[in-house]
Amino acid sequence: MEGVLINTNPTVSVRLTSTLSSFEAERRFNRGLTLAELKCKLELVVGTPASSMELQLFSTTNKFLMNMDNDEALLGSYPVDDDCRIHVIDKSGAKIGEFEDLSRVEKYELPDDVYDKRTDSIRSFLKKKKAGRFKEEDMEKEAEKEAEEKAATENVTVGSRCEVTVPGQPRKLGTVMFVGKTEFKPGYWVGIKYDEPLGKNDGSVNGKRYFECQDKYGAFVKPQNITVGDFPEEDYGLNDEM
């Protein structure tokens, strides 16, 4: 054994190779393990059944030292030092690479619609953070939405009479006072001076003025909710009063 000294440390870190894999692993083991116990642990690493293993010990320079063939012997009774290599020979009849070929593993794929509903997935996290492809998708959607809004403003001009129909709200009549982009929200907006005090402002938002009107007569709506046409102011019967 060329004068190899037996290390008295309670644990040892060894390199692991096998006839079933081209990969090398590194694990730390207690020297108090019997070889039978060691084989059970190696089974989880290399995939070979413990009963079908033969072990060979190599030095830190990969020189063959000896066969490890006494299942009752302790690991520490062999000249195993840190960075030595234990080579596992499979006697079960399995072929090299058998446990590396993932194409032979039956895969379960979660249906896309089910995965979308999960709140603990990477996809859900990226959606919330609007990161990765979801950031690009949001940017594309915003660009498409803005293009649609711009197209909807082509026939909307300042001074035009209009009808405003917002879902969940009563029909309103007014005059177009502003068309374009604003600082308070992205996209295109139409500023309306209503015939009645049915609005939310006086033509200004957050200190920025876009047009002039009385308080509560002004509002900003999306161009899709505007219909420009011949909408005369309604007569509320004021001329019948003296």
UniProtKB/TrEMBL annotation:
What family is reported?
Answer: Belongs to the TBCB family.
Check the record and name the PANTHER family matching this protein.
Answer: DYNACTIN 1-RELATED MICROTUBULE-BINDING (PTHR18916), TUBULIN-FOLDING COFACTOR B (PTHR18916:SF85)
Q: Name one GO cellular component term.
A: microtubule plus-end
Q: Which GO terms describe its molecular function?
A: alpha-tubulin binding; microtubule plus-end binding
Entry-linked Gene3D superfamilies: CAP Gly-rich-like domain (2.30.30.190), Phosphatidylinositol 3-kinase Catalytic Subunit, Chain A, domain 1 (3.10.20.90)
Spell out the SUPFAM superfamilies in the cross-references.
Answer: Cap-Gly domain, Ubiquitin-like
Query: What InterPro entries is this protein classified in?
Result: CAP-Gly_dom_sf, CAP-Gly_domain, TBCB_Ubl, Ubiquitin-like_dom, Ubiquitin-like_domsf
Q: Has keyword Chaperone?
A: yes
The signal peptide, as residue positions, is: none
Instruction: Please classify the protein's predominant subcellular localization into one broad category.
Output: cytoplasm
Give the originating organism.
Answer: Polypterus senegalus
Name of this chain's protein = TBCB protein
UniProt-listed GO biological process terms: cytoplasmic microtubule organization; post-chaperonin tubulin folding pathway; tubulin complex assembly
What keyword terms does UniProt attach to this protein? Chaperone, Cytoplasm
